[in-house]
């Protein structure tokens, strides 16, 4: 169960009291205002979730725990304290520029269990540091033993003006007694710790992810390959009927790119337009000359421009339609419309010379 914090107990007492009048309310307001002002100056009030700027181990402040027999490891600036450090700072002490780090197995006043990064504002509003400290420190009080109370230490007004935004959450004994062992060894709880960073994805997870991706991708690739193969077969069959009709060897209908080259020449276009298909956006130019050739092929079969529309959207239907046995191919009709003869098939220069 979550340990009730000192500032919560104070709030409950003030809201449940019915014997005080306006004078008591005014006195409480003045007290709270004084605590907020003292928080910015580095001072702490007893039974408040705040912190103390304190004296040395040898001369404890009134109300501070007795640290006789403490083992001082080193003295450091309070901003260099880290989680797990045991110190001489208590709720009744004043924190100077430096703090003594004590052996956690010897008497000590507090232990650091969390650090605070205060918002970077020019002038904090009254009570804002208190609220931030309570949120940060209070979020990690559940693992603390019931006999432990959290306090916090923040920058003084002068330190804030120089850019210091560092603070500490410390655990002290609720009865102001000295602690004699680390929080992790106290009965009833363990030292709280910040949530661990998420572990990187395991090799097994990455392998499973790759396998799942492959399993999902392979059917899509197979379906796409089947679609391309089916279209190629239908298109080649359609060209077979058309090429047979116009006197072109049918094997050219089954060879990729050769079928495109031949269809261009059948429409009186240079087959070299085919190579633009291998250039970015060059396929658009190839398609334009292909459609011009298809229009001229339609004219040789006595068809109007509507047949070209069919060839653009359904080319295999266009080829099957022209390759039917009842259609008549008249390449000489191209000359009647002012077009040159085809470059392959009946009526071409090659067939005429032959």
Question: What features would you describe in this structure?
Answer:
The longest helix is centred in the middle third of the chain and has 44 residues, at 203-246. Helices cover 41% and strands 10% of the residues. The protein is built from eleven helices and six strands. It has helices spanning 6-16, 22-40, 128-138, 157-161, 203-246, 258-266, 282-300, 305-313, 315-322, 333-336, 349-353; strands at residues 72-77, 86-87, 98-102, 110-117, 148-153, 166-173. A six-stranded antiparallel beta sheet has the order 1-3-2-4-6-5, covered by helices on one side. The relative contact order is 0.08. The chain folds into two domains: 6-14 and 28-185, no CATH class; 228-353, no CATH class. With 354 residues, the protein is an alpha+beta fold. Mean pLDDT is 76; it is low at 1-58.
Write the topology of this structure:
Layout: H1 6-16, H2 22-40, E1 72-77, E2 86-87, E3 98-102, E4 110-117, H3 128-138, E5 148-153, H4 157-161, E6 166-173, H5 203-246, H6 258-266, H7 282-300, H8 305-313, H9 315-322, H10 333-336, H11 349-353
Antiparallel strand pairs: 1-3, 2-3, 2-4, 4-6, 5-6
Helix pairs in contact: 5-9, 6-7, 7-8, 8-9
